[in-house]
Amino acid sequence: MTGIVIHILLVAGLPPLLLGVIAKTKAVFAGRVGAPLLQPYHDVIKLWRKESLFSGTTTWIFWAGPVITLSATAVAAFLVPLTSESAPISFAGDLILLAYLLALGRFFQAGAALDTGSAFEGMGAAREVTVACLAEPVLFFGLLVLAKLSGTLSLSTMLAGPLSSSWQSSGAPLLLVLVSWFVLLLAENARIPFDDPNTHLELTMIHEVMVLDHGGPVLGMVHYGAALKLFLFAALIVRVAMPFSLRNPGLHAGVFLLGMLLLAILVGIVESVMARLRLVQVPRLLVAASVLSAFSFILLLR
Predict the structure, then answer these.
(1) From CA 233, how far away is CA 239, in angstroms rounded?
(2) Which of 12, 17, 121, 255 is the most buried (most CB within 10 A)?
């Protein structure tokens, strides 16, 4: 029960902090003070306090998109074990549910953008789906590697302590999975070099252009859902990189939190030393990540 409570607290409270750490890291590299570390929390709370305004041309899909996307991402976060205990939702084959939940959220997010009838948001939805088609093989091949090593299709078993012994016998495939999943994290969360979350040029945006017509609590759900999605992919990477299990759930949560913060700092460093790629170069990087992920699975079959 203690592990479940810690899991809920991490899922509910940690995601905006990762965005704050990334922004603070970028500010340090730029020689600025930057926004407060807890600024993402204030932004979400401010949006939730505002009034919701909907265009008369939109349908229920417009407001249902952020709600379903946030709900699907939240359920997916409860499939990934964060502490030494199993995830709150755990069963054989739950990794398939994880993939479908992520696809469900993306479908309704793109549908909400298309429902506005805006050419810009339709363009962003098309780009989002294109990136997803190229990014999904990266996730699936990585999951295949973990399934092959653990002999199970349950995330709670795949990412548990026995994975630590696999680093000794199959370190190279796992390292390739980590590299490809880090690229996947940047792509799925619209981070540099794939997208710039701070840009204001609609023609260059991918994710942000889809939510131009959102405002108030709906936009707050979009921002929190994006932070939760970053948390989800970061949790997968941290659990693969640190697969050990500690008997004390609180101590294990502390180590997990440290790993998440270090990963957020790494994302901030990458965004500080790299520029956004041209749109035509984005598929090449995603294909390269897919090749790395596929090669990691091939190494296990030789």
Answers:
(1) 10
(2) 121
Nearest-5° angle of CA 233, CA 98, CA 167?
A: 55
Euclidean distance between CA atoms 298 and 138, whole angstroms: 14
Contact 272, 34 (CB under 8 A): no
Identity of the residue numbered 249: P
Rg of the chain over all Cα atoms, to the nearest angstrom: 19
Per-residue pLDDT tens for 143-180?
Answer: 999 988 888 888 988 887 667 777 777 888 999 999 99
Residue ranges of alpha helices (H) inside the chain are 2-13, 15-29, 39-49, 60-77, 94-115, 119-150, 155-158, 163-169, 171-188, 216-241, 249-273, 282-301
Please count the CA atoms within 13 angstroms of the CA of 235 that sit on its side-chain side. 27
Confirm if 159 and 83 have CB atoms less than 8 A apart.
no
Which residue carries 């199959």 as its tokens? 170
Give yes or no for a contact between 243 and 226, defined as CB atoms under 8 angstroms apart: no
What is the C-alpha separation between 38 and 36, in angstroms, rounded? 5
C-beta of residue 206 within 8 angstroms of C-beta of residue 131: yes
pLDDT tens digits for range 92-107: 889 999 999 999 999 9
Phi-psi region of 34 (alpha: psi -120 to 50; beta: other; left: phi over 0): left
Between CA 7 and CA 12, with CA 11 as vertex, the angle to 5 degrees is 115
Q: What are phi and psi of 203, to 5 degrees?
A: -70, -20
Three-state SS at 214: coil
Tokens 């296990």 appear where?
A: 300
